[in-house]
Amino acid sequence: MGFSWESYYDDGDWERGAYVGGDDMATHLEAFLDRVGDVDAVASIGCGPATAEFDVAARRPDVSFACYDAAPAVVDANREKARADDVENVAFDVATLPDTGVDREFDVVYCMAVLYFVRDAEAALRELWRLTAPGGALAFTYPNRNMQSWAQGLGDDDHDKREAFALVAAGENLLSYDRIRDVLGASPRNYWTAVDADPDADYVQRSGSPAVYVRKQA
Length: 218
Ligand SMILES: C[S@@+](CC[C@H](N)C(=O)[O-])C[C@H]1O[C@@H](n2cnc3c(N)ncnc32)[C@H](O)[C@@H]1O
Prior knowledge:
This protein has helices at 5-10, 24-36, 51-59, 72-84, 121-131, 145-152, 159-164, 166-169, 177-184, 191-194, 202-205, and strands at 41-45, 64-69, 90-94, 106-111, 132-141, 189-190, 211-215. By secondary structure, it is α/β, with parallel strands linked by helices.
């Protein structure tokens, strides 16, 4: 059987943390909100433990965060944490790319380390763009050819990872700067540069899953 995020969270053996960029991601997300400007509402799609989102929500009580994930177990755990920590500006719901069913727009749509697991990454991209309000911005990481090489190199020791990244290894959901521009009709830009990330950080140096953002015309 293939890898299942629901089983992963159900097992309960997971820790809170951002998948790409770790503890730095909250600082980066806050810098991104400042860069976009006038941000009232943020959506995080495939939020997982929503570590950066919780952190920035606590620092920015004036901004509302709507966080979605395909796995009900992590959504439940996040709701529990929000209740326990008395955080009022973060909400959690189940939603699955490429058809989230979410019926509103957001100033910032944030989708980190998720498209690797979606078979139709282009449809997912169009959905994320639909959720992005005019004048807003979409930030995401995506799987490219370098990530495919990495995924193809995963050995038996990395059995779970190999299953999780099977679509990438098979080249079924790869994207590129050019493809993103063609699908969205707007050019992606480097997210790490926009948020002034350390150029020597391992996640910035990594060429396999670039982090980009796209501004939507007002
Ligand atoms: C590697 S984790 C990343 C979590 C978080 N965004 C981060 O950066 O730490 C991938 C998350 O995407 C979720 N996911 C996988 N496929 C999805 C889909 N089709 N739609 C929405 N979420 C999905 C998983 O349940 C998991 O929580």
